[in-house]
Amino acid sequence: MVTIAERLRSAYQRLATAAEKSPHNFPVRLLAVSKTKPAELIQAAYDFGQRSFGESYVQEAIDKIRHFANTPDIEWHFIGPIQSNKSRPIAEHFHWVQSVDREKIAKRLNEQRPASLPPLQVLIQVNISADPAKSGCMPEDIAPLAKLISNCAQLNLRGLMTITEQTDDEAKQLYYFQQMRACFDTLRAQYPEVDTLSMGMSGDLETAVAGGSTMVRIGTDIFGQRQ
Ligand SMILES: *Cc1c(COP(=O)(O)O)cnc(C)c1O
């Protein structure tokens, strides 16, 4: 049987190979997407050395975060769509939120983030392929949303996230990733703390890295297929 450690090792190898070929010269982080997967598998990944995990479903995630409450250095990223009535537990339990796509959610997360905790690290989700089935703001919404977030004491703007359309057309995908990279470079010029462009999943890691990703979100390749 292939273990989580072996799968993680090959995911990091795949990432290193992609990064070597990339015209962009900076480290790319790997977020292990553990949604729907049990705590034992997260523990196995942690034992291998993985520290950052992505979750999409609030209640399931909170149960896991509680389970690992005494585990040092573990970092939780919320990557799913945010309903405004579910923003409080996200604000209270996560370190990062990658899926902020509207002002209302940013304001709520800021108000609900406990003052005893460090600011939430925030990415703006962009629907770069204008896919009606996906959340995310349009590129022209980035600037006003970034301005609002940068004025929120309990939020720390770190960059952008996107989920692109699943397509076999690699050139089209690369084009979307490059458009995201251009939005990211524009944002970074204005906000010095911006350092994260989250894009690329199990199916499109290489193209995303070639397009300038600084964080890939890998689920299936590490933890296996989801039900
Ligand atoms: C589920 C999910 C992933 C992981 O996708 P895989 O194809 O399993 O690697 C990445 N990003 C987001 C936002 C997700 O919801």
TrEMBL record:
CDD domains: PLPDE_III_Yggs_like. Residues 14-226 form the Alanine racemase N-terminal domain. SUPFAM superfamilies: PLP-binding barrel. The keyword tRNA processing does not apply. Belongs to the pyridoxal phosphate-binding protein YggS/PROSC family. Pyridoxal 5'-phosphate (PLP)-binding protein, which is involved in PLP homeostasis. This is Pyridoxal phosphate homeostasis protein. It comes from Pseudoalteromonas fenneropenaei.
